[in-house]
Amino acid sequence: MPVWLREHSWRQTLTAVYLSLPLRGARATAADIFCSERYLKVSVPPFLFEAILYAAIDDTNSTAKIGNGNIFFTLCKKEPAMWDSLTLGNAGKEKLQYLRENAVLKAQEKAKEETEAKKLAKQEHKKYALEATMKLEEAERKRIEDLKEKEREKVTKELELWKNQQKDAYKYKSVPKKGESHQETEPLKERKTKKPTKTRIPDEGTSKIRLKSTKGCHGSCSIFSPNLKAEQLPAPRAAATIRVNFTPRVFPTALRESRVAEEEEWLHKQAEAQRIINSDLSELEDLKEEEKNPDWLKDKGNRMFAMGNYLGAVNAYNLAVRLNDKLPLLYLNRAACHLKLRNLHKAIEDSSKALELLTPPVPDNENARVKGHVRRGTAFCQLELYAEGLQDYEAALKIDPKNKNIEKDAEKIRHLIQEPMQSS
């Protein structure tokens, strides 16, 4: 149930009424106040204040201020006069209800009108913005059309000027010069019937081309004249074949870019390793060439491990190790297979061999060293050698301190070590 606010203070002038409502600790907002011409309501749970005003007020210019646990109203009177009281006291219940409902209806209509006015203003603003945009676009389009028209006129003038220049040049060429012989104006048919004069064939060694002028031109003929004789070219050169020999190279780089001593040393080591493999593994002669590649065997072992064929993976890794015993990943992968097969001592041996080959420790082999320590530590723990296993896990944590899984496993091993001590 709301608590009616009976305590309030007010004072008035000819033009305004000043009302103060104490809220007693309640917090009010603007949404808790409703005011119309004759009706004022303040709903601040749990308090409620309601009043039918003595006369009409200008609710648009009236204000309310909230602060220090009070609400201060400044109600502007529509007509200057002194009120006998703040509220309408002699009104009956039905009249009060009518005034209250009428005030709510007027407030709703006013809110609706304000919403419609805002909507219309927004539409007008959009319409104005659209018209302004269309005007700008039209001005820009007109400017572009004017530029195009100017360019078109400019090109047309240049074309006309060029045509006039061509006409003048043609007229100038068609006028015969003084001193030209009568033979230059002979008909074209007579010129075609004339026999060409003999020309001297130039020597083969010279690079100059000489042209024999026709009779009657006297050096004044153009190069496009029909009287010009055919150009005499030297005899073609004799065909020949050029052979280029290249030095055989094992490496793809050019000889000037390589280091010959290091390349020869590498080739010698490869040949020696291949010789040892062929002598020690004479039983592998029936295998294909790719099956003698350690990398190919490693990939085959990885595929078998993924399918759960751990024995087949171990056999593939064994053969790869016999071909090349300097690859630490072969020992790491075989150690993983031995862990799955519960060959714990062999897993420890392979992990130790892999860690031995992964020296010196560098950032590139951090991941492989972590795997080596974890797999050897796992094998130690499964053999109940928790102290040795904890050493490997702590070594792995030093390499990769952010690995939460290794940290959890190390914590479990510490508990397993501490349990026998507590029980004793």
Automatic annotation (TrEMBL):
Keyword Repeat annotated: yes
Disordered: annotated span: 171-212
InterPro entries, per database record: CS_dom, CS_DYX1C1, Dynein_assembly_factor_4, HSP20-like_chaperone, TPR-like_helical_dom_sf, TPR_rpt
Highest taxon, organism lineage: Eukaryota
GO function terms (MF aspect): nuclear estrogen receptor binding
Gene Ontology cellular-component terms listed: dynein axonemal particle; extracellular region; neuron projection; nucleus
UniProt name for this protein: Dynein axonemal assembly factor 4
